[in-house]
Amino acid sequence: MVSPIKSIGFKDLLLLGLLAIFITVIGVLYPYGSYPELWGGYFYKAINYQWFLFIVASVFLFRNQFSKLIKKELSYQEVWVVSVISGVFIIWVAYYTSYYTSYIIGAISFSFVLYLSILLIYNKRKKSFKLEEKKEKYANQKIDEETANKLINEIDAVLRTEALYRNSNLTLVQLAKKLHMRPHIISQVVNDHLKTNFPLFINSYRIDEAKQRLQTSPNLKMEIIAEECGFNSTSTFYAAFKKLEQTTPAKYAKSQLIKTPDV
Question: Which PROSITE patterns does the record match to this protein (predicted)?
Answer without folding.
Answer: HTH_ARAC_FAMILY_1, HTH_ARAC_FAMILY_2
